[in-house]
Specification:
The protein contains 8 helices and 7 strands. The protein is an alpha/beta fold and 251 residues long. The protein has one domain: NAD(P)-binding Rossmann-like Domain (Rossmann fold, 3-Layer(aba) Sandwich). It has a 7-stranded parallel beta sheet, sandwiched between helices. The longest helix is centred in the middle third of the chain and has 28 residues. The two termini are 24 Å apart. The structure holds NADPH dihydro-nicotinamide-adenine-dinucleotide phosphate. NADPH dihydro-nicotinamide-adenine-dinucleotide phosphate (NDP) binds next to helix 1 and helix 6.
Length: 251
């Protein structure tokens, strides 16, 4: 598979799944626009990848910053072919009545509004150039609830509906909009989950999680021609048949 000549914007690229995806897609030939709030980590990643990478600090909960990141992709590389909406937050973990409303709001602002803002800013460019792919990172939390995660479960259920909306409204204009539910992944997010001590996910061992590089391979697969087969819904990487189709070893 090659992404030569394609431009990909990745949110939450400063670490974890986003950084692994940036490395992998760049190795497959893509131009990568790296966004997150941590400017220094992004600059280091861009330097590691080389001239096909551009970094721009961007808080996805701020529409002006989102628009500036999309504009940079178009200005630097002449268009935007693929958007990977990966930025996400989970902490803090509390039951509903114990949450500070501002903490609950922040997760919705990043996980939900951030995805909407990016889709809103990217779609006109993709439509004008005849098509594109939007991949939203979902979660098992879009389907089931876990104690202490009301904010995260509500946010990922909303992301799934944004994926379905993107497909419903723009498939006819050449937009492939789909989701990816990765299962549990060995990133900083799981370190925070473990520290919370709440609900069964915090009891998992690090060996239970897949590496971020597996998710990067799945993202590359879904952002290629095969993605059209999964448009409008989440691809569930945890399923053995999903790993097999990507060429990942069984777990
Ligand atoms: P990490 O915590 O390692 O990375 C999260 C990324 O999101 C960072 O790059 C962070 O960058 C970025 N981010 C957070 N807030 C903002 C913001 N306001 N604006 C822009 N970027 C932001 O987590 P993962 O790599 O594990 O998570 C990536 C995605 O995968 C998330 O959507 C998560 O919900 C999802 N996911 C993860 C699972 C797991 O087990 N790890 C399981 C299922 C889904 P910075 O702080 O620099 O802004």
């Amino acid at each position: 598979m090659t992404f030569s000549g394609k431009t990909v914007l990745i949110t939450g690229a400063s670490r974890g799944i986003g950084a692994a995806t940036a490395h992998h897609l760049a190795a497959l030939g893509a131009n990568v626009v790296l966004t997150a709030r941590s400017a220094q980590a992004l600059e280091q990643l861009a330097a590691d990848i080389g001239p096909q990478a551009k970094a721009i600090a961007c808080d996805v909960s701020d529409y002006d910053q989102v628009k500036a990141a999309v504009d940079l992709a178009v200005a630097q590389f002449g268009g935007l072919d693929i958007l990977v909406n990966n930025a996400g937050l989970l902490a803090p973990v509390h039951r509903v009545a114990d949450f500070a409303p501002k903490d609950w709001d922040q997760v919705i602002d990043v996980n939900v509004k951030g995805v909407f803002y990016m889709m809103h800013a990217a779609l006109p460019n993709m439509i004008a150039q005849g098509g594109g792919t939007i991949l939203n990172i979902s979660s098992g939390a879009a389907y089931g609830v876990l104690e202490g995660w009301s904010h995260y479960c509500a946010s990922k259920a909303a992301v799934l509906q944004l994926t379905r909306s993107g497909h419903e409204e723009y498939a006819a204009q050449g937009i492939t909009c789909l989701g990816l539910s990765p299962g549990t992944v060995a990133t900083d997010m799981q370190v925070l989950i473990k520290a919370s001590g709440v609900n069964p996910v915090s009891k998992l061992d690090v060996s239970d999680h897949i590496p971020a590089s597996d998710v990067a391979e799945a993202i590359a697969y879904l952002c290629g021609p095969a993605g059209a087969d999964f448009a409008g819904e989440d691809f569930h990487l945890k399923a053995p048949e999903s790993r097999a189709v990507i060429g990942l070893p069984a777990r």
